[in-house]
Amino acid sequence: MTTKRSITVTVNGQQHQTEVEPRMLLVHYLREVLDLTGTHIGCNTSQCGACVVMLNGEAIKSCTVLAVQADGGEVLTIEGLAPEGGLHPIQEGFWEKHGLQCGFCTPGMIMASYQLLKNNPHPTETEIRRGLEGNICRCTGYQNIVKAVQDASERMSTSAETPVPAGD
Amino acid sequence: MGIAAMLGTPVKRREDPRLITGQATYVDDIKLLGMLHMTVLRSPYGHARINTINTDAARQLPGVVAVYTAQDIKGTVGNIPVAAPLPPHITSGMGRRLPLAEEKVRFYGDPVAIVIAENRYIARDALDLIDVDYEPLPVAIDVEKAMQPDSPILYEEFKTNVATSMHPSSEQIDKIFADTVANGGVIVKERFVNQRLAPSPMETRGVVAEYRKSDKALSLWSSSQIPHLLRNYLAIQLGLEQNQVRVIVPEVGGGFGCKLNIYPEEALASFAAMKTGRPVKWIEDRDENLAATIHGRDQVNYLEAAATRDGKVVGLKFHVISDMGSYLQFFTDVIAIAFTLPMLSGCYDIPNIYSSCDTVFTNKAPTDAYRGAGRPEATYMVERAMDVIANELKRDPAEIRLLNFVQPEQFPHTMATGALYDSGNYGAALEKALDIIAYDKLREEQKQKRAQGKLMGIGISSYVEMCGIGPKGTTPFGLYESARVRIEQSGTVIVYTGTSPHGQGEETTFAQIVGNALSIPQEKVLVLHGDTDSTPEGRGTYGSRTTSVGGSAVFQATERLKEKMKTIAASMLEASASDIELEDEKFTVAGSPQKSVPFKKVAAAANTSNTLPPGIEPGLETTVFFEPEACTFPFGTHICVVEVDQDTGEPEITRYVAVDDCGKQLNPLIVAGQVHGGIAQGVGQAMYEEVVYNEDGQLLTSTFMDYAMPIAPELPHFELGHTVTPTNVNPLGVKGVGEAGTIGSTPAVAAAIADALGVAHIDMPLKSEKLWRIIHKQ
Amino acid sequence: MSVPAAFDYHPATSVDEAIALLQQYGDEAKLLAGGHSLIPAMKLRLSQPEHLIDIGKISSLSYIREEQDHIVIGGLTTYVQIEQSDLLRKHFPLLPEATSMVGDQQVRNRGTIGGSIAHSDPAADLPGVVLALKAEIVVQGPQGKRTIPADDFFVDTFTTALAPDEILIEFRLPKATGSTGSAYDKLANKASHYAIAGCAAVITRGQDGSCSAASIAITGATVRTIRARAVENALVGKQLSETVIAEAVSHATDGEDMIVDIHGSEEYRRKMAAVVARRAIMRALERI
Ligand SMILES: Cc1cc2nc3c(=O)[nH]c(=O)nc-3n(C[C@H](O)[C@H](O)[C@H](O)COP(=O)(O)OP(=O)(O)OC[C@H]3O[C@@H](n4cnc5c(N)ncnc54)[C@H](O)[C@@H]3O)c2cc1C
Ligand code: FES
Ligand code: FES
């Protein structure tokens, strides 16, 4: 039997202190301990990107990080992207441009796009496609995802990232 | 806000807010009190006898609640259901299985035992503690070798691996071929391998089962495309009444046909829940998904084509070998026979078509419906045939197609295969695609590039597919669709559909249909699906049928309620029902627009009953079952342009044009999305994807490290166009578009790459090494 | 369920502490840096250490700086740090170039150069770069520090000159003298996007325009990352025409054992190693 460890992680602005098995993956910590099920699992070999969240300001595959590695860190998940009841411009872009079908890859795609636009607020189509190379979508053929990111990029430069209420 | 419901407009999807915020509930997001977790021990061999299974150590691991093998479920859990068993052997039991392997395992990934534990991690640990003594047996992997008398046999009592063998007399077609030769025509021959694919929805399968012993009530959450069929067959498997089983399909992260199935784990989790008295969850791992969820395609095909010198195709002769893998899943045995053979004439008016077919068991995962199911195979063969003929006659592939198309005035048209096509205008779609891509200029450019030593290729594929299944008698259970529509007192409409959309956006499309019919904003329509306790008996979502069949049921139910509301409005307005019109959320009397009553008020009157005229039944609710008389036949032309790297053989798509005709488009935004995604999957088959087993039956593509699918930088920007040729098979005039992109794209890419290399045909997947070998004649 | 087998976790706050832990747990322990090779292997249970010593938070091992005639990189420096480093772009553009081809953004945010080199996956990109740049690899163990030339570091598939109780702490890159150009070229497989073949090339041109030094390393194709000496020998002293280069690269993998899998046969990998080598050398030349 291994020794559990106490970790403190700030997720979407809220601090959590939890005892976890060292082997618990961050994605399971988020989904099963904190019940933040918006982050998904699509593979077991770090290829698909369904599990992407921000850890300390960088996009990561949460299936390839142990919860104990996030100790003392800050995590942002899809649930925390916009204030309650609002949408982040990237979420709006995905909605507006039909950037999703089954929606399973979407939270990971949105978080990867978040990192992409953080690094490069005005990406070209090629840069967007390249920036999303760690995320697989089986439904959309990526075209509308590219449009969604372009749309988000425009919204973010005009609105200076003010989230809008849902259901506009 | 005006009425934003109009059909044919790009309405944003109402499904999206929950999906983009992480609030949607997929099956793995369900957490029940006291829930246990299940893992499955799978065979590491392609074919082996099971001597003994020792589960003692696993059972003793703290946190393990139970371990079950075939011995435990035998007599309690029935065989995996099969939709349409074919004679002679399958009707006598060939290919049938219990959810856990007995005596023998027949493919890498075959379930052997299950562990039920307090959490996933323990359930996983316990798998390593189960000791199975296997005696490896020789394997049948190559389908053509599996047909030989000396092949290892999967089902020994049948003494063969061939389940169904259809070889009608070929006398007539042979005579036509002989005549063609005598008249100076040409005969071309080709062998095509339509490789094995893994459907790979981003969400793997998953199940949660909960059982209440007191009244034998089983609730099963499953990531499925077929809630009602699953309920009906699972009930049989478990010896329960249909009404004792409730299937709930939550959000589903893609299916592509692989969730149009009833799998071992659904019965196993149910069994475990019944035994332990606690809810049981099983979530498939990606390596299980690649090994044990159905695979798609896997046919080996032989083609002979006869054409006149001037390019008229006079006969096609096909032999289709369907590799079914090791066991039967739901539609395994009928994919080739019911979906490939009828489509072997493609878009072309070919007087003579002959086909023979063998369906064969091998030591691989079962094959079944994967996006297109049988039709992509047919389209691929026919389209490759047209190119091979064009190549032989040194004619332009577009020209050969135009010359052989069924003409618009010939519809409805019965093909030589027996299929009855509803409507079409194939030439128009092809011309439009040529136009968009500026075909003549492109061929010029190709000449110049070739002169510079660059390998540029252009491929055309004109497809037609059969969807909206499907008329009476197609399956033993009927392929109708249903809708219950209820209008609340407030005027809000609730639609309960028997279909089970999982990404196709029908919550939006159906709301548009209803909003349009009732002239109310689509926002006032709620569409519910996936719970067998609240939705009427339906058949689910697959085969591009949801809008054409399910949408028609919704439309007809809505129309019925509209008539009733008109009668009520007529009495309220003291007019005749035939004079009542419905517009802008109010009923008016024709010719007297000042006399009107709001939609809401009529809805309230119907629901409260007191003000209803005598003879009118209270309430606004009706259920309609729609069973189409025939299938629909969407079509189109895709053109792909590639460049292949001389040095490495790496192909790159530089342009892609798709012109699709799915009849009326109810929501162009959704239609385009379906086409994009379809093309990506079709490109995947052409260039990337292939399930590979080695000669020992080991699966070599068991993770995404080895199973390749297209990612964003590898795909081009698709240029779309469309034509509209409605159908009268259903009241909406829609044909279906879920599979079109996949069916149309694969042959276009294959043709482009063959064209780039200047050869008639190359088998897929068209990976760099294969192309490099052709370029460098290695 | 793809989850690691159970282990005990020991976050180390210093190199000394990590070394002490390595000594204490011996064979049962493994170091964890970015985790992007180790955790996937543990999830598939290909690796089942009983003790995991996390060095990922030793921030003093994460740096890129100039020290006289060397650029030095801390063992725990991440790919993104390398990709975005102006210092490296100026002195060793090969490193950010190759790094930008590793995995994807999420992988590059976590993975470390030390982890990649210590792991020594023949399909990985940076081992070749480290070889081509003739890095000095500084490792620290119970007996203190020692420096291993890159040429002596990669022993075999997943095997290096690192002792079990040593930690890779620094890379020292000698600044180039003379007119030097470099490039990395990679032909990736379409599934994992690891290299089928890759090549890191550093070419120095002498006063007379001929090649005065060449350092060529091959990744992805051979069972261990190698310097392609035959290619180097065929280049040095010559005016680098296309024919000379084409002839030289045809020896890229001579005598080496090759990786063979569903993404490429032995023959294809040999030929592709030559193709990427030619491309890398040509680009390196253009950049001089
Ligand atoms: C999806 C995906 C795609 C990838 N694609 C590529 C690619 O295209 N090209 C490529 O090159 N790589 C690729 N990688 C691998 C990636 O580069 C790894 O991050 C890297 O190889 C390991 O670095 P790490 O810091 O993550 O090491 P870890 O995984 O933490 O450690 C790897 C091994 O090295 C040991 N180790 C780590 N640090 C040290 C140290 N300082 N001293 C001694 N031993 C140490 C560990 O004990 C372990 O055995 C990919 C990985 C993933 C998950
Ligand atoms: S689940 Fe993390 S990358 Fe697939
Ligand atoms: S929307 Fe289904 S996987 Fe991307």
UniProtKB/TrEMBL annotation, chain A:
Instruction: Please name the Gene3D superfamilies in this protein's record.
Output: 3.10.20.30, [2Fe-2S]-binding domain
The UniProt entry, under PROSITE patterns, shows: 2FE2S_FER_2
Q: Which organism is it from?
A: Dictyobacter vulcani
Pathway the protein takes part in: Alkaloid degradation; nicotine degradation
One GO term in the molecular function aspect is:
metal ion binding
Q: Where is the 2Fe-2S ferredoxin-type domain?
A: 5-81
Q: What SUPFAM superfamilies does the record tag this protein with?
A: 2Fe-2S ferredoxin-like, CO dehydrogenase ISP C-domain like
Question: What keywords are assigned to this protein?
Answer: 2Fe-2S, Iron, Iron-sulfur, Metal-binding, Oxidoreductase
Name under which the protein is recorded: Carbon monoxide dehydrogenase
TrEMBL record, chain B:
Molecular function terms from GO: iron ion binding; oxidoreductase activity
Gene3D superfamilies from the xrefs? Aldehyde oxidase/xanthine dehydrogenase, a/b hammerhead, Aldehyde oxidase/xanthine dehydrogenase, molybdopterin binding domain
What are the record keywords, sorted? Molybdenum, Oxidoreductase
Co-factor(s): Mo-molybdopterin cytosine dinucleotide
The Aldehyde oxidase/xanthine dehydrogenase a/b hammerhead domain covers which part of the protein?
A: 21-138
Keyword Oxidoreductase on this protein? yes
Q: Please indicate if the UniProt record lists Oxidoreductase as a keyword.
A: yes
- Matches recorded under PANTHER family: ALDEHYDE OXIDASE 1-RELATED, XANTHINE DEHYDROGENASE
How is this protein named in the record? Aldehyde dehydrogenase
Q: Which organism is it from?
A: Dictyobacter vulcani
TrEMBL record, chain C:
Q: Which InterPro entries match?
A: CO_DH_flav_C, CO_DH_flav_C_dom_sf, Diverse_Substr_Oxidored, FAD-bd_PCMH, FAD-bd_PCMH-like_sf, FAD-bd_PCMH_sub1, FAD-bd_PCMH_sub2, Mopterin_DH_FAD-bd
Residue ranges crossing the lipid bilayer per the database entry? none
Is the Flavoprotein keyword given for this protein? yes
Any keyword Flavoprotein?
Answer: yes
- PANTHER family associated with the record: XANTHINE DEHYDROGENASE SUBUNIT C-RELATED
The lineage's top-level taxon is Bacteria
The organism is Dictyobacter vulcani
One Pfam match, given by its short name, reads: FAD_binding_5
- Tell me which residues make up the FAD-binding PCMH-type domain: 2-178
Q: Which UniProt keywords apply?
A: FAD, Flavoprotein, Oxidoreductase
GO molecular-function annotation terms?
A: FAD binding; oxidoreductase activity
Question: What protein name applies here?
Answer: Carbon monoxide dehydrogenase
